[in-house]
Amino acid sequence: MLPKKNRLTTEEFKDVFKKGKRYSTTSLLCVYMNEEKKNAKKTGISVSVTKKHYPRAVDRNRLRRLIYNCIPPIQIQKKVIILLRNKVLPKEEDILCKEVSSFIRSL
User: 101-104 contacts: CB < 8 A, separation 24 or more?
Assistant: First the structure.
């Protein structure tokens, strides 16, 4: 799990979702943007898993932790939101992890 200081706040989440650039794969939607304000924190990552595909909070939290653990420990200077687009089968979790890490490295 990422430390709280490295995650986006609700206000930042809404701002990035409205103004950010989008990148999508078959199972992910990633929204990211550079930070324009000088006094604001430079980086932040947030992961969102919908209730539509995972009604149980236990499943959503497990996937959120899985994605947070896939994020490589490199410094990025952007704010990033990672959304799960559809249901991921347990055998596809490795592919999901590779997609997340390759996207973060490409930033």
Answer: 101/70, 101/71, 101/72, 103/23, 103/25, 103/28, 103/30, 104/71, 104/72, 104/74, 104/76, 104/80
4-101: CATH topology is Ribosomal Protein S5; domain 2 (3.30.230)
pLDDT tens-place string over residues 38-50: 555 667 889 999 8
pTM above 0.70, yes or no: yes
